[in-house]
Design a protein that fits this description.
The chain has 402 residues and is mostly helical. It is globular, with a radius of gyration of 20 Å. The chain has one domain: MFS general substrate transporter like domains (Growth Hormone, Chain: A), CATH 1.20.1250. Helix 3 runs antiparallel to helix 4. It contains 17 helices and no strands. 79% of the residues lie in helices and 0% in strands. The longest helix has 30 residues.
Length: 402
Amino acid sequence: MKLFNQKKSTSLMVIIGGCVLLLISFGIRHSSGLYLIPISNQLGSGREIFGLAIAIQFLMIGFGSPIFGAIADKYGSDKAALYGVILFLIGLYLFSLVTNSFLLILSQAIFGLGCAGCGTAVILGAVGKAVSEKYRTLSLGVVMAAGSLGQFLIVPLSGALIEATDWQRSIVYLCFISLVMIIFVFALSLRSKNQENEHSQERPLKQVLGVAFLNKNYVLLSIGFFVCGFHVSFVATHLPAYLEDLSLPIWIGSWSLALIGLFNVFGTLLFGYLGDSQSKKNLLVILYSLRSFLFLIFIFLPKTEFTILIFAALLGVLWLSTVPLTSGIISVIFGSRYMSMLYGFTFLVHQLGSFAGSWFGGRFYDFYGSYDVMWWICVALGFASAAMHAPINEKPLEKIYT
């Protein structure tokens, strides 16, 4: 009984550590869109430069995720996360010093690498290894819900800091908040001996990746995840500016992102819970289809404070609920031993979508003078992703390591 309680407490500590890391990193990262207009005005540029900088942030998160995932699998999640937090702080502080386009892009590149180190690939991998398979998808949902709660708490705080001080000092204050992450990094080193994955022996990375990259289910899952990144980055980066263009109050932008985060807490918990008993790929088909229908309705919806907040709440339920399901399918097919790295490569594809969503949002706005084209692209991609997930077979791949 004592051993059982010790195992439970170990898993709980890993979950708590992961929750705090994602709460702070997600909250600050999703505040980036609030700085689009003030920084663009200071640089005297159009929106494409800022959109490109955030796109590079997303891209560096993507490229960094499999690298930090491999570090986590080989040397420990705590070490990978610690390196990530250090880069996170450096990039964030440089963001407060931006005076030209080069420094803006450099700060976001370093910040993006930091986000990869203390982000989903490392955290979900740590949780996946610490929690039994029976409760794994729900636990992943809990951690992602914490990240969304951070979006709800920190995005409005960032907006309030910008209005109360200025955008540069608001970022410095966010740096001080980020220091808390260093304390919780070390919780990720905890692990119960009985919770080692059944495929715990070391295998050449080339063999693991070769099997994964040739697996149809893994490829379809990764391509479908591209769309999630496209949707999330476009909305997070450009929604506040889009609403300001409609002459809506400034607070609507920050609170829309906050509501997305709040309602995604319920969404990730709901779909995380359902994912432990229902088909994860069928739930993903439903999620992406519902997103497209919601974007379609939003295009024709009258844009008022009330309708915007309702849209944000509904989108929040569907926001990052894809993550516990996607990572859960990877864990089911391949096991949790190399989950951090394999999810990291899938997340790289997600971030390629994020790069496209953020950059194209600014590019098309500067070219067309509106975001209309982007909303229609979001509709089409959502239905395409739903079709990608339909043929996935989420059964374990028995001979992956033989």
